[in-house]
Specification:
223 residues; alpha/beta; Rossmann fold; Arc Repressor Mutant, subunit A; 2 domains; 5-stranded parallel sheet; 4-stranded antiparallel sheet; 40% helix; 21% strand; elongated
Length: 223
Amino acid sequence: MRILVIEDDLEAAGYIQKGLTEAGHLVDHAIDGEIGLEMAKTSEYDVLIVDRMLPRRDGLSVISTLREDSVTTPVLVLSALGDVDHRVEGLKAGGDDYLSKPYAFAELQARVEALARRRDPEAVPIRLQVGELEMDLLARTVHRAGTNILLQPREFRLLEFLMKHAGQVVTRTMLLEKVWDYHFDPQTNVIDVHVSRLRAKIDKEFPTPLLHTVRGAGYRLQE
């Protein structure tokens, strides 16, 4: 899932960005309302997280302008202003949900994923399965044939992408863009290293391999 955080507090934005990235999402950041508005209008996001009090253009103005321009991306409003009247203002401006500061990151993540599911029930599946390999996206766990498999965050994102495209050939370019968020090939063996580590974890102790190399094309996860 691709998320845009519009937040002028660098520490707060970094906290959100780090947490959502570790949860497997791609996260962009805009430091003020004008930049955020332009990014939200010109790029495609699954969810926007918008701070209410922003420099150059306040958050509610960003949201209402997006709605006037027929941008329907779900918006979670963040604000230190948390009474009923302020929440109502945020929702009337076009926000889809409103979270008062301070907040627990787990709640923010749950609300973001709920907004994405509301827009497209299949956008954020809860569980993935390929044969006896199972992934729980909420608990962030992976099991194969009942055996728990511990993965690093990048390995989890890689496996998640492969499972979502099970049976398909996944190219290096697709992995660079969707798992590493590179829009160019850095000419390193980073993908090969991570695929090798992932294969050792999900296939080595089991009789039937699931992760296959398609020579000259990429990789395929298949039962």
